[in-house]
Design brief:
Structural class: alpha+beta
Largest sheet: 5 strands, antiparallel
Strand order of the largest sheet: 1-4-5-6-3
Radius of gyration: 16 Å
Shape: elongated
CATH superfamily: Hotdog Thioesterase
Helix content: 25-40%
CATH topology: Thiol Ester Dehydrase, Chain A
Distance between the termini: 23 Å
Length: 151
């Protein structure tokens, strides 16, 4: 049974919103966003979430300045409506689970008020230069817990 929160009400309560300009170059011959671009849009939104809360470097800053990596161990996306260049894509990002060594984000993309995709993105925390799993750093845990859905 899938227990991920996917309702608009759950997400918008504490969601961070990142706007993406979808371009013609993001589209396939069907004139909608190429399927492979949609995870990129979501990852851009998650990176913007990190940058918003940790500083302008986002993931880059975590890896380079703090030696903290967050590689993905799972992602899944449900497609709800086509994405086109006609409207800005507004991606809502919210952490929904924080484990001992991992974080799960829910990302939902909207265009013109219509839900286009909903995705689950799970990262594990690692010591970047060793690629060895580590516990969630205490300052990141302290930052994330109040931002989580249901907190």
């Amino acid at each position: 049974m899938d227990t991920r929160p996917t309702t608009e009400a759950t997400v918008t309560a504490k969601a961070f919103e990142h706007e993406i300009h979808v371009t013609w170059g993001d589209c396939d011959p069907a004139r909608i966003a190429y399927t492979g671009r949609i995870p990129c849009f979501a990852l851009d939104a998650i990176d913007a979430w990190w940058a918003h809360y940790l500083g302008p470097g986002g993931w880059f800053q975590l890896n380079v300045d703090r030696n903290i990596g967050t590689p993905f161990v799972h992602l899944s996306i449900d497609f709800k409506a086509p994405i086109t260049p006609r409207h800005r894509l507004k991606c809502q990002v919210i952490p929904v689970r924080l484990g001992d060594t991992s974080i799960e984000f829910l990302v939902q993309g909207y265009q013109n008020g219509t839900l286009c995709f909903s995705g689950c993105f799970v990262c594990v925390f690692v010591v970047a230069d060793k690629f060895a799993k580590q516990k969630v750093p205490p300052d990141i845990r302290q930052l994330v817990e109040p931002l989580m859905a249901g907190a």
